[in-house]
Amino acid sequence: MWLPQLHQQSETFHVNNLQTLDVKTQHRLKDLGLTRGKKVTIIRRYPLHGPVIISFDHQKIGLRWDLIQSLKREQVEQ
């Protein structure tokens, strides 16, 4: 893998969905300030669906790749 491939542009999204996560994870994210509608910037992705470093409200945290995909997914109204 070439070094330029490791450097990816940042991506910004708004948290759309917390309802698909288990209750403990929802509480942990809410305690960190990550709520529905929050603007989040992905600043680093590790290869092979490794952790993703995100930034919001002047803090940086690492989350699992699949958790990030759940946060970006549109919420289905029931």
UniProtKB/TrEMBL annotation:
Domain Ferrous iron transporter FeoA-like: 8-69
Keyword field: Iron
InterPro entries on file: Fe-transptr_FeoA-like, FeoA_core_dom, Transcriptional_repressor_C
Gene3D superfamilies recorded: 2.30.30.90
Pfam families for this protein: FeoA
One Gene Ontology MF term: transition metal ion binding
Name of this protein: Ferrous iron transporter FeoA-like domain-containing protein
Organism in which the protein naturally occurs: Loigolactobacillus rennini DSM 20253
Phylogenetic classification of the source organism: Bacteria, Bacillati, Bacillota, Bacilli, Lactobacillales
